[in-house]
Known about the structure:
Layout: E1 13-15, E2 18-20, E3 27-31, E4 38-43, H1 47-66, H2 69-85, H3 87-98, H4 102-122, E5 129-131, E6 138-146, E7 149-153, H5 161-172, E8 176-180, H6 186-199, E9 206-208, H7 213-225, E10 229-235, H8 238-250, E11 254-258, E12 263-267, H9 273-285, E13 295-301, H10 302-317, H11 337-352, E14 356-359, E15 374-377, H12 384-387, E16 394-400, H13 403-411, E17 415-416, E18 418-422, H14 426-435, E19 440-443, E20 458-459, E21 462-463, E22 476-484
Parallel strand pairs: 7-8, 7-10, 8-9, 10-11, 12-13, 12-18, 13-16, 15-16, 18-19
Antiparallel strand pairs: 1-2, 3-4, 5-6, 6-22, 11-21, 14-15, 17-20
The protein binds NADP nicotinamide-adenine-dinucleotide phosphate.
NADP nicotinamide-adenine-dinucleotide phosphate is lined by residues 153-158, 180, 182-183, 213, 216-217, 220, 235-237, 240, 243-244, 258-261, 292, 389, 417, 457.
Amino acid sequence: MLTDVAPWTPTDAYVGGDWVEADEGRRFAVTNKATGEVIGEVPSMTAVETRRAIEAAEAALPAWRARTAAQRAEILQRWAALMLKQRDELARLLTLEQGKPLAESQAEIAYAASFLQWFAEEGRRIYGDIIPPHQPDKRIMVFKQGIGVACGITPWNFPSAMVTRKAAPALAAGCTFVLKPAEYTPLSALAVAALGEQAGVPGGVFNVVTCDKAGAAEIGAEMTSNPVVRKVAFTGSTATGKILMKQCAEHMKRISLELGGNAPFIVFDDADFAAALEGALICKFRNSGQTCISANRIFVQRGIHARFAAALAERAADLTVGSGLESGVQQGPLISPDAVAKVERHIADAQARGARLLTGGRRHTLGGTFFEPTVLDGIDQEMELSSAETFGPVAALRPFDNEDEVIRLANDTPYGLAAYVYTENNSRVWRLSEALESGIVGMNTGLISTEVAPFGGMKHSGFGREGSKYGIEDWVEVKYVCVGIRPAEGEA
Ligand code: NAP
């Protein structure tokens, strides 16, 4: 059953080049996040089907890694082109199952395709080294090989881009891949797989196993313990990342972790006020605040703080909330009732501890999981929203007086994914770039994601980098070959 989505969208899982049901035939429902209506049902799989997918990836590995990088690139480029050709349909599907406004879904599909394009090219530049030897009769050669069979587990907030950000470098490097997408958004991943099949990705090279929340831990355990799997790549919460890392440690498996964030957004008195306002608005309310790089704590220097808070509240109150499919909508629903409950808890806790509500703060009159764009002022480090990711449309502000103070406040979090700074002072740009404990810094910009730059965090936001020339490194083994050479025959 599939209603209201592109007719070619598959609702079976994809294993070994076949579209398959779960062994027991169980399925779970995928809903339209704006209405709650069921739009399709996909297989609810277990460790057994996951093992089969891993075996399929293992069987496909020798032929895939034997191809030249250029041959693999040709397929990845075709895959990207098909995604861009079907961009409207993919975006519509993404909006239906995830909720974000159509324009954001369109942007995500282009972003997702960009990883296929980038890594198609990058796969051809996995260079090695010749190292000057340590002895006269030795030669030292270093080369890089695809790591082998790899697994990926992805979240619901970027259900298309997080798939290609992992699968593209994996496949480009000659690895084969098994994916488990999030329960809320499996259709986008299956649609990406369908286009991969059309593009000529051989059976078993890219596999998708789907499951509901109850099955996630079992599939994760299989991926992290199966001896065939050489690497697991995860994007999601820090709590789940820690579980997977422990499991990988048990089996000495490589893992890369793109985890939660708690981004500081810092505006100095000398900033371009209008640009900082625009940056805060987009950085905070894009995807209803459900991004790992969303501004979680907004620090504004005291000289402009009151004016900035009032302006942000005015702009937030003006955002159009509604179904992402409707034109002009700027903020869609949240992903689930639990997400709404968390946002309400953070707001209530902040207000109880003295924060002032400037706008929003309640469930939206549209009902469901719609929530009003919210601005709170006067937050402090003790409030729950300062220490935990809100993952919702809540802008939380506080004033600061000087640079040292704001650097200390910004770094006072276990997380370290993204940070933002608005200033026109060039020396400060350099000082802050170096002082902030985060993997990514947006200087005078609230939009930082691109396939050409390394995305990833430090501290509890994880490790490993996705995108850019660095993004291929997690998918290769470095091998060193020491060659002993003898003198030419007849010579001493
Ligand atoms: P999550 O609960 O950790 O889920 C992420 C994925 O892990 C889903 O596919 C989920 O399956 C699966 N999962 C859950 N428990 C598992 C287990 N024990 N073993 C194996 N897999 C398991 O996170 P989320 O709430 O979906 O995603 C939001 C989080 O992702 C936020 O913290 C956000 O900051 C982070 N994020 C980080 C980045 C980054 O690049 N750093 C990017 C995007 C999002 P189910 O869906 O079936 O539960």
